[in-house]
Structure formats: structure tokens, C-alpha cells
């Protein structure tokens, strides 16, 4: 039995969620509510001591880290007809360079701006006492530091540097997608799913950078993934912390 | 035919180097000399546009990123008797959480202190003109920024924070190795190789943190890997930028 604990179809949580839909695997989605800090509650920290989503429970075994979970689904269900990892070792390596890049570079710059815009105001709405009570339950010191930085407002130099990195990231994706339908070559793979998890909706949140004039291939790729039956089903059926991407998904 | 471009048996270069020795695969080692900035020369940037080692040439296909290369060797040589990736998907996931952690956390804090100690003095020995000439050949802006920070000396707050993270890392490794012979469970895997790449010689460079009194299990694990025939052969036969770990390896 598979249970996926996640924040719903956005950011890192989207990765295994979309992979599960693509592969057509039966699973129980368990929405963890970030606005209630459910991922820092004791019951969840017993599953993942780091207090982070997503986490997959497979027959009582807990798998953590979004990209690791995605590869796990390939390893644990080798007979599943839908493969999200190429067969050719060279292509697998290309795929992993892309999934590694999103985890080490692309996701962080987008995340900081997202935190500045969304987590900052949320954190400032708490009294100092309420805020400290929530901080005390966060097991990762770096995560606590990020909350404090968001509450104070990230320094302008940090925001400028992260925006520069977002520009680099967008240019890199556009260049690759101008020459290849999918990131790791001719097939749709985890490289696409893991980068889509961060890039999706940038055409709204970062419209000055991601738009049909400046990045036609990136926008077409985002649209192409959103149009996939698995993505449509995921958005329609999943609870989400994020605004729904289109009216049909609000159900 | 396999050719590995590397800085020799230390840091990220050690990972695929040791994996190749462990698996007994025939390969040509190509030492890239960091003191001559060979990795920023045009011939190397034609192999890896990011100007980073290690890089593996397999019959003309270039694989980059140390951890990706290690997994590639498992994928590309499935008939090799020596497996460095477990068979059980749960164990593979555990292994990947460890290889991901070293790439995203452990290697960076150790790297900053190493740069402060070794790259800083080296960078300051150049005239401004010499230094700028070298900077102009570095393709990654973040890498240029790291060189400039090392030359200026990293801020004390940065060094303190990195030392804190090294302390967290050492404690994490010690705790895990107190309960398990190898990081990802009963078998020696890429989790061990990739963490050893960073941890090896910390008993010298960070003796106040890594020693038989404070971290007996970590030291025993480092010794256990150094004693493996593959590690001994690698150190004895490889050119290295680093001081040799023992007299026999200086040949």
C-alpha cells in the first residue's frame, strides 16, 4: 500500500504526486496542511524526523526526499508499463544531471522569492510568541533560519542574487527546450517532472521572465505537461495549498 | 573505453575514482592539474562546458557530476560482479538520501573551509592581473564568486556557520555509523564512497572534531575504507593534488 504525504500539486510535493499519476499506481494521497504546520507535528515527525514533505509510505517503509521518491517508484515497480526513467544509461545520467540541478540550484532561487512573497506576510501575521512556538517545532536549524529570514524580509542583495539565478535557470531551460522536446532527450522523464514542479506557474508568478515572447519553448513545455491526462487528473483531484491553475481544478 | 578526468583521489574526484577501482573496471586516469587551472582550459571545457571535474568519457560520451557518474557505472556495467548499489529498492533510496545529503550539505561546508585554508593563500599569491585572467576563464559565475571570496578571505560569520554545519555533519555520520557498519545498511555502497570522499582525512584537517575519542565509529569507518584493496590501489597509483595519505602513496 502506498500513501503519499504532501502539500499537494506544487513545488517538491508535485514531483512524486505527478509520477504516481503518470504511472497509474494506486495510492492514498494524504494532504499535509502547511498553513496549520502539520508537517511539524509530532505524528508527522515520527514518519520523517526532518519534518519535511513529501514522504512516501510503502507498506510501512518511509521514503523521503522528493527526487529519491521518484526514482524509488521506478525501482520498486519495475513491471509498471509507464517508465519515467530512460532505458539507456547515458540518458539516465542526463536525466539525473537535470534532477540534481533542480534540487541544487533552480528550486532554491525560486523558493526564496516564493518565501519572500508568501511565507513572509504569513509569518509576520503571528505574534512573536506564536511565531516562536512554531519555530520550536521545526527540527532543521536551516529551516528555522529561513523562516526567520522570511519574517524579517530577505535582504535586497539576497533577493537580487536569487532573481539573477532565476534568470540563469529560465535561460537554461529555454535553451534546452529549443533543441529538445523533453529535457533529457526524446522521452518524457523525471527530468521533466522534477523541473516542471518548480517551473509550473512561473508564467504567472514570474511573467516578466517566462512568457510566450521571451521563452516560447519553456511555455510550450509547461503547457504540454499541464495538458497530459496525468497532470489534469492530479490537479483536478488533489487538495493544494496553491491557487488552482485553472477553474476545473478547483473542485 | 573509459577515461576519467579528475583531480585525483580527494573530494568529488575521489567518488568515481574509487568506484572504478572497486568495480575493477579498466580505465585511463587523466589527471587534470588544478594548480595549473587545467579544468578551465578550452580543451577541457569542450568536454565539460561547466569546467568541472570529474568527468567520465565512455566511448566518446561525456558523463559529468561525480554522483551521477557513480550511478552511471552501476547502470552501464550491469554484469560487473561488484555492485555498489543495493538490490533492494528501499536500500537504494536510503543510499540516495546519503549521496544527496553529501552533495547538498556535507560537501559544501567542508569545501568552504578547505577553500579558506588552501585556495585563499593560492589566490592571494597572484597579482590582480593574473587573478583576473584566470577568473575570465571560469564559466560558472558562482565559481568565480567563490574564488573571489576565498581570495578576500571568507567572512567570519560564513566560516562560523560552515564550522557549525561540519559539526552537525560529523555528529550525523557518527550516530549512523554507531548503529550500522555502512551508511545505507549492511552493504558497502555508493553512500559510503561518496561520503568518504569528503570525510577522509578530516581526522587530520578537523582533528578537533574527528578523532578516536569523539567519533570512534566515524574514524573506524574511514580506516576501514582506507584499508580496502581498492582504496589502497587507488591511492598508490593516482596522482593527486592533495598530500599523500601515507608514504607508499607518494610514488
Automatic annotation (TrEMBL), chains A, B:
Gene3D superfamilies linked to this entry: 1.20.1050.10, Glutaredoxin
Superkingdom of this protein's organism: Bacteria
CDD domains: GST_N_family (cd00570)
Stretches assigned to the GST N-terminal domain: 1-81
Alphabetized InterPro entries for the sequence: Glutathione-S-Trfase_C-like, Glutathione-S-Trfase_C_sf, Glutathione_S-Trfase, Glutathione_S-Trfase_N, GST_C, Thioredoxin-like_sf
Residues of the GST C-terminal domain: 88-246
Family: Belongs to the GST superfamily.
Stated name of the protein: Protein ligF
Amino acid at each position: 500500500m502506498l500513501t503519499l504525504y504532501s502539500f499537494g500539486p506544487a513545488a517538491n510535493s508535485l514531483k512524486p504526486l505527478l509520477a504516481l499519476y503518470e504511472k497509474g499506481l494506486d495510492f492514498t494521497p494524504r494532504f499535509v496542511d502547511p498553513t496549520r504546520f502539520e508537517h511539524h507535528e509530532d505524528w508527522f515527525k515520527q514518519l520523517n524526523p526532518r519534518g519535511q514533505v513529501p514522504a512516501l509510505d510503502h507498506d510501512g517503509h518511509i521514503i523521503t526526499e522528493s527526487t529519491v521518491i521518484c526514482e524509488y517508484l521506478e525501482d520498486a515497480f519495475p513491471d509498471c508499463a509507464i517508465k519515467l526513467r530512460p532505458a539507456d544509461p547515458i540518458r539516465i545520467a542526463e536525466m539525473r544531471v537535470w534532477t540534481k540541478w533542480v534540487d541544487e540550484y533552480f528550486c532554491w532561487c525560486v523558493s526564496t522569492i516564493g518565501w519572500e512573497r508568501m511565507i513572509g506576510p504569513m509569518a509576520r501575521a503571528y505574534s512573536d510568541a506564536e511565531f516562536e512556538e512554531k519555530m520550536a517545532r521545526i527540527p532543521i536549524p536551516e529551516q528555522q533560519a529561513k523562516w526567520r529570514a522570511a519574517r524579517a524580509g530577505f535582504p535586497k542583495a539576497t533577493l537580487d542574487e536569487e532573481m539573477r539565478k532565476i534568470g540563469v535557470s529560465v535561460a537554461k531551460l529555454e535553451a534546452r527546450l529549443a533543441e529538445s522536446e523533453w529535457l533529457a532527450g526524446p522521452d518524457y522523464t523525471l527530468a521533466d517532472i522534477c523541473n516542471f514542479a518548480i517551473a509550473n506557474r512561473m508564467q504567472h508568478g514570474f511573467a516578466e521572465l517566462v512568457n510566450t515572447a521571451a521563452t516560447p519553448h519553456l511555455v510550450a513545455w509547461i503547457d504540454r505537461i499541464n495538458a497530459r491526462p496525468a497532470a489534469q487528473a492530479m490537479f483536478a483531484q488533489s487538495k493544494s495549498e496553491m491557487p488552482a491553475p485553472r477553474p476545473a481544478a478547483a473542485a
